[in-house]
Amino acid sequence: MKKIQRLITRIGLTLLAGVLIGGGVLGSGKMTPQASAAAAGNGYVFYNSEDVLYRVPTTGGTPQKIAEKFEGSYADATSKYLYFFDNNDSTKLQRVSLTEPDALISSFAGNKNIIFYEIVGDFIYFMDDKGVIYRSLANAADDSQIKQIANNADTEFPGFSVKNGRIYYNVLKNGTNTWAASKSRDGSGNVQFIAQGAIPASTFIRSGPSGISVMVDTKPAETYYSYNAMVLYTLPLNGGNPKAANAKNPLDVNATMSGSWSNDYYVYNKGVTVDDDDNYVYSKSKGYAMTKNGVSFQLSQNGVVSLADMGGNKLAYVGSNGKGYISTIANNKVTSTKPVALSNVTDVYNVNNGTAAGQIVFYATGGVYAVNTDLSVTKLNGVTWDNSAIYNNIDGIYYFNEEDNKCLYKMSADGKTKLKLSDGPVTEIYTIINN
Fold this sequence. Notes:
LRP1-like_beta_prop; five-stranded antiparallel sheet; Prolow-density lipoprotein receptor-related protein 1-like beta-propeller domain-containing protein; globular
């Protein structure tokens, strides 16, 4: 058996607000799934310049100074408040008004120790260290709108996600055994138990046009060996009877944890291991895709280290050999795979460009490149891994311009247009929201 990758104790906090494909400091990492679903192109960027918190419209304009000597992490925002923790280790949720002049930072939820939160629509949902989940109107003037909606949540696996009127989370059934479960987002009705085991993090919950997909670790107590323990469950959009896709053939934990969703598949790395520093070792792995019916097929001769859905039965991915590929899939089989003319490729993303297809962008050691329709590439000059950030459902790429005092810029996904957003140097982007 293979050693399992050890999970950080507070895995939920690495994905707290779920808005950035990456977290905070520019270039610090870029994989996170859930942003506001509002119309793209009309929103705000929240950033730090010389220890001052600002926000500026994504379409350009005069930056608004919000707070001096600001330090924050895991931020998300509404039209009236920016929510955040005051440091990476804090469990005290803070917020600052975006509409009041000279607003002071204040605590939210009193003395509760918050270990996970998410803003969805008009509401903020959060879990405390006692396993109680609450919600409140996110623009409420005070704490009086806070309401308990669930209890007995498993704080060892705090990640949850609100999808289509229900909250999906981990609950301690009978106070002892961890089960994946769901409940109405307003707290009404009974808990629906999905399966015994744990949803490892909120990223393992995915909503699609036809239903909800949840990946469950059926042996969550095991923290050293990588067993075949990951089972995919599908449910109707509004809740209902869960269906196990691969109950007879559970996936290896390492293979699953190193994988990611596409629109139609879960892509995993068969044969992946971890080294003594808990880094994935892909040398003997191959990429596979599993359908929501539990059918698996080989996607790649190498491990898949980064993945982006292109729509139209096409997937863009980075192989563990450092090359980029675009594969076409039909009838649960790869019908063609074409390499992208790049080397030392590290990551791939589908950047929102206002179209349904989006724009595929590959990150490589030599720069960042947009893929054209003929699979040729266009270098996005000035953008690197270390100075850029991409957000789900937000148009363009945001980066600080080394040639202009590290001011904040927005570049279109194809690299054809640039827009200057700040006058001073930027060290951190906290979040970007759509109105």
